[in-house]
# Entry
Amino acid sequence: MQAEKARNNKKLNLLKSKIMEPIINSQLPEFKVQAFQNGSFKTVSNEDVKGKWAIFFFYPADFTFVCPTELVDIAEKYDQFQAMGVEVYSVSTDSHFVHKAWHDASESIRKIKYPMLADPTGVLSRAFGVMIEDEGMAYRGTFLVNPEGKIKIAEIQDNNIGRNADELLRKVEAAQFVATHDGEVCPAKWKKGSATLKPSIDLVGKI
# Structure
């Protein structure tokens, strides 16, 4: 009887360990990491993010293949993100020294102006739930944090699937719109300037 109870408890604990806690509307974790930006090393912490919109753009590793195409895609939209009051932070488990070496070696990576965060201990990757423990690197995770420090967008995908900065830009515009227009929501494929919806009982069954 005791043995069976122990087995059931073990199964229950295993099940609990696999249940993912919702990350949407959770608070940005405390952190302090090194970064490389515009030819210099700097320290970035959660204090630097307070009061601002921020994107955390996780990728597996420097000196790889899909990653530079994504980072350059974001770099080409960086001015637009900045104009919207959004800071972009790319994150990998490489050190800040490796970020600099990649920047110096790659013409593509030299286009990047946003901070490249170093997460060699995996503290950020684990906090955002994207760490691949067996490989010591992160999945492709994209997270938008609002000025109150709450995560409003969270997407994680396998490392052989690249992302699209245009789609991210659209989603950030939607997140900023609903943050400043109480009672309105953005429907599918919404773009800035398009019509929104105002949920009410009158709309039930009519969309």
Notes: The domain at 22-164 is CATH 3.40.30.10 (Glutaredoxin).
